[in-house]
Specification:
216 residues; alpha+beta; OB fold (Dihydrolipoamide Acetyltransferase, E2P); elongated
């Protein structure tokens, strides 16, 4: 009752791929997982792949015969599971916070919540390993994701295990998460002992000069 697929060109959100994470509402002693949300457009290739994978595992787990209402068993069981969003790894609704506001990156998107107790394989475009220090896997970055869509034996959920992630291209938040300061952004302090105080004075003067033009 499992179906392994690759979801192309999906955007990462809620990214915990280098350090395992425990959800805030998890029970005491809960096992931490490496996890990420994979976001994509409705009717995109990734969306069609996920839907097909879910249908495939559901048919195997629940059967294709009709129930008393004339509805295929697998469809009826899926509809029942969808009544509890926490039981289904795939959603067509924007993810919202406690106030009902839509989280950044989820507006108008479908998404899959995938996790793994073991760290997923993380690779670059050339298939070389990605490390945390490289700063490539951040919210909004575009990746290919290898996931296993599966249903447990008791039929209580539809899960997604994250096997691996491949970097594809920068996301909308690349500047916020990836850009680092250049050495040219700082003064050279090797010349004299007054450089530090001069740099401080210069920064202070710049702040004073610009204060009147800043509005909040």
């Amino acid at each position: 009752m499992a179906h392994i697929v690759t979801l192309p060109n999906v955007a990462l959100q809620f990214v915990y791929l280098f350090n395992p994470h425990v959800a805030k509402n998890a029970a005491a002693g809960a096992v931490p997982y490496y996890t990420a949300h994979l976001c994509f457009d409705p009717e995109s290739e990734a969306d069609k792949i996920v839907r097909s994978a879910i249908a495939s595992v559901a048919k195997t787990a629940f059967g294709t015969e009709n129930n008393a209402a004339g509805v295929p068993m697998w469809q009826a069981r899926l509809e029942k599971l969808k009544e509890n969003a926490s039981k289904v790894c795939y959603s067509t609704k924007p993810k919202t916070d406690g106030t009902g506001a839509v989280w950044a990156g989820f507006d108008g998107k479908h998404w899959v919540r995938a996790s793994n107790k073991n760290q997923p394989t993380l690779i670059n475009r050339d298939k070389s390993p990605i490390t945390e220090q490289m700063g490539l896997l951040y919210p909004s970055v575009i990746v290919n994701a290898r996931v296993d869509i599966w249903i447990p034996k008791d039929g209580s959920a539809i899960n997604a295990t994250l096997f691996g992630v491949q970097y594809v291209e920068e996301g909308a938040n690349a500047t916020r998460y990836v850009r680092r300061a250049s050495a040219d952004d700082f003064p050279d302090l090797s010349g004299d002992s007054d450089s530090a105080s001069n740099a401080t004075d210069s920064a202070s003067n710049a702040t004073d000069d610009e204060a009147d033009s800043i509005e909040f």
